[in-house]
Amino acid sequence: MGTKDGTPGGHTGAAGEAGGRGALEGLRIADFSRVLAGPYATMLLADLGADVVKVERPGTGDETRQWRPPADENGTSTYFLGVNRNKRSVALDLASETGRAQARALIAESDVLVENFRPGTMERLGLGYDDLKAGHPHLVYCSISGFGADGGAAIPGYDLLVQAVGGLMSVTGQPDGEPVKAGVALVDVITGLHASLGIMAALRHRDATGQGQRVEVSLLGSLLSAMVNQASGYAVAGVVPGRLGNAHPSIAPYETFPTADRPLALAVGNDGQFASLAAVLGCPGLADDDRFRTNPDRVAHREELRKVLAERLATAGADHWSAALLAVGVPAGPVNTLDEAFAFAERLGLPGVVTVPAAAGGPAPATVSRQVAHPIALSASPARYHSAPPGLGEHTAEVFRDTPESRTYEGN
User: Fold this and answer.
1) What positions carry a catalytic annotation?
2) pLDDT value at position 258?
3) Measured between alpha carbons, how far is 361 from 55 in angstroms, rounded to an integer?
4) Mind listing the pLDDT tens digit for each residue in 203-251?
5) Would you say 405 and 101 are in contact if contact means Cβ atoms under 8 Å apart?
6) CA 169/CA 205 separation, integer angstroms
7) What is 28-226+351-408's CATH number?
């Protein structure tokens, strides 16, 4: 079935085409996860050199293959394409003994297992952590759930639901409006980041001791941690926050303001920045006004301050104010659309969109796939982009060709 030395059969590895070694070269991940949190975590690790083998249900595969529009020119879901590059796909029927035998063979050759089935599913399949740890003491076993494996095991783990019951929606939206979710599945993304961090910590422990362990991450736990200052305000001071629109509960001015053309975001974090803001707006006396002299003063008189600033900012456009304020060190910028955001990153020299070679037999026949760049820059072992997201079951025969299970394989 290939080896764990970074050169599995038929696979060049993340460093193969780009030259050099990925930071995680030689690490194999058996990825039983679907949708977003797990696939995002494993894609980040694949970009850094891990050999990720994605286990999918025959016929349908990962649910996000069907989540469209939008789709690329070949009709492939851009949702799926966004979190599954640099992986190999195998189609296994885990309801059959043959499929479970193939899964066990894959796990035996893997360093990490990632799964986000409803708690108890892997155990019913005989693939739970307790089923595997004795025979695979090196294995790092990462379970991602919505609400944990105990009292919340029966609650489906959907991002919208977690944003609602986890408190995020209660602080998102206008004060006089209804609670609003974030514009992306933010909790899934944060959980994926926590999962990848937990995996790397467990691998570091294994380096030191030779022993794997179980890593458990939940959407709810991840959200409560990610609520940071809001959660700390409750935990320490018993404050239950509400919705403030785009304003901040502890800083002012720290919100969006209308201008002559489009909204402008101001993020004034200290008194010096506020003095510079007042000078640029042509009203330096604001910085000496007792209502606005310090940040606590400005928070206490937020509405009065907002009225004064909005009147001045309405005299010119967002780009004008952004340039003038950034020139004196005041954090400010227009509210961009997504295309404008990518263009902005490009102007700053930050990676935005990259092209990835499309593997033969993948979901798209194009020679390259446009992908969003990996966000972490490593000077010695940077992220590599060696293959576009795979077709369903594209690598099943390749992965299992050197195992007894290959004789029972009947096609992709």
Assistant:
1) 188
2) 97
3) 17
4) 999 999 999 999 999 999 999 999 999 999 999 999 999 999 999 999 9
5) yes
6) 37
7) 3.40.50.10540
Nearest Cα to Cα of residue 32 among 142, 136, 135, 134: 142
CATH class as words, domain 264-334: alpha beta
Domain with CATH 3.30.1540.10 in the chain: 264-334
* pLDDT computed for residue 20 by the predictor: 59
Instruction: Give, rounded to a whole angstrom, the gap between the first and last alpha carbons of the chain.
Output: 16
Asked if residues 162 and 218 have their Cβ atoms less than 8 Å apart, the reply is no
The dihedral built from the CA positions of residue 199, 202, 203 and 204, taken in this order, carries a sign that is positive
Q: How many CB atoms lie within 10 A of CB 63?
A: 15
Which run of H or E residues covers position 280? helix 271-280
- pLDDT for 316: 97
Q: How far is CA 241 from CA 162, 227, 229, 368, 410, in A?
A: 17, 11, 10, 47, 57
- Identify the segments of the chain with pLDDT beneath 50: 2-18, 407-412
Torsion of CA 129, 24, 362, 59, to 10 degrees: 0
Q: Classify strands 140-145 and 112-115 as parallel, antiparallel or unpaired.
A: parallel
Domain with CATH 3.40.50.10540 in the chain: 28-226+351-408
Give the pLDDT confidence score for residue 73 in this predicted structure.
86
> What's the CA gap between 403 and 173, in Å, rounded?
55
Q: How many Cβ atoms from other residues are within 10 Å of residue 261's Cβ?
A: 12
Q: What is the pTM of this model?
A: 0.89
